[in-house]
Write a structure and sequence with these properties.
Layout: E1 4-8, H1 10-39, H2 41-63, H3 68-87, H4 90-111, H5 118-126, H6 136-167, H7 173-202, E2 206-210
Parallel strand pairs: 1-2
Length: 215
């Protein structure tokens, strides 16, 4: 059993991932949709920003820390909201898509060589992945490399979305942005999973479901 990485049992895994997704994306989007329907786009943007900041503060007070996914959303949404409201220009508003990805690229690259790379924190927080202490050095190297991979993913998105914004009509940019983002992110996830499988085989590690860690 000590030669296995551990994930929470499926029900717990799904609930943990769902809570993280709701805190980071679902609640802010719901806040935007509700406020925008009542008072317009700017009100929606402020509501979205308010929801993510309130979530971060509550998490900090309740647990002493802010989940990495919430922190990423907070930084991205703050930049996007300020840029959108300050300019009021549709083209400038759309620029925040490549800018946000550039910011994520910088964040991932900055943490890649630190003691706790952001990919490792996300794996622990979002899906509850646990590693036996004896294998932490190998896993830490893996997560540093995967963090670099995701810095490259977000860098590619930043460049490609910037180029697309310059060459295609503004009215078609949002659907093209959505499709490009889905394809590139899916490719990054696929590469990360395959890399993890290769690493596990190389070090003779397994993967099993286990009870959630006691807090």
């Amino acid at each position: 059993m000590s030669e296995c990485l551990e994930l929470p049992r499926p029900a717990r895994l799904m609930s943990t991932a769902a809570v993280n997704a709701a805190e980071s994306f679902g609640l802010p989007v719901a806040g935007y949709a509700l406020a925008a329907s009542l008072a317009g786009r700017d009100a929606g943007l402020w509501a979205m920003l308010g929801v993510i900041w309130i979530t971060a503060v509550i998490r900090k007070l309740a647990t002493g820390s802010v989940p990495s996914l919430v922190m990423i959303s907070l930084v991205v949404l703050t930049v996007q909201t300020v840029a959108a409201i300050a300019t009021g220009n549709l083209l400038i508003f759309l620029v925040h898509f490549p800018i946000a990805n550039l910011g994520l690229c910088i964040v991932f690259a900055w943490t890649a060589r630190r003691e706790s790379p952001i990919a490792a924190r996300l794996a622990a927080e979002v899906i509850g992945l646990r590693c036996p202490p004896v294998h932490e050095p190998q896993m830490n190297r893996f997560f540093r490399h995967v963090t670099v991979l995701w810095a490259g993913v977000f860098g590619l998105l930043a460049v490609s979305l910037g180029v697309l914004l310059a060459i295609i009509p503004v009215v078609t940019y949002v659907p093209v942005w959505a499709a490009t983002t889905v394809v590139v992110i899916a490719a990054g996830i696929g590469a990360s999973v395959l890399w993890l499988r290769w690493m596990l085989r190389r070090h003779g590690l397994g993967l099993r479901f286990a009870a959630a860690a006691a807090k």
